[in-house]
Amino acid sequence: MQQYYSQHPRFYHAVDCIIFGFSGGELSLLLLKRKFNPGKGEWSLMGGFVQEGENMDDAAKRVLTELTGLTNVFMEQVGSFGQVNRDPGERVISTAYYALININEYDRSLVEEHNAYWVKINELPTLLFDHQQMVDRARLVMKVQAAMQPISFNLLPEHFTLTQLQTLYEAINGEPIDKRNFRKRVAEMSYIEKTGLIDKLTSRRGAALYKFNEAKYQESLKFRL
Question: How far is the C-alpha of 19 from the C-alpha of 153, rounded, in Å?
Answer without folding.
Answer: 15
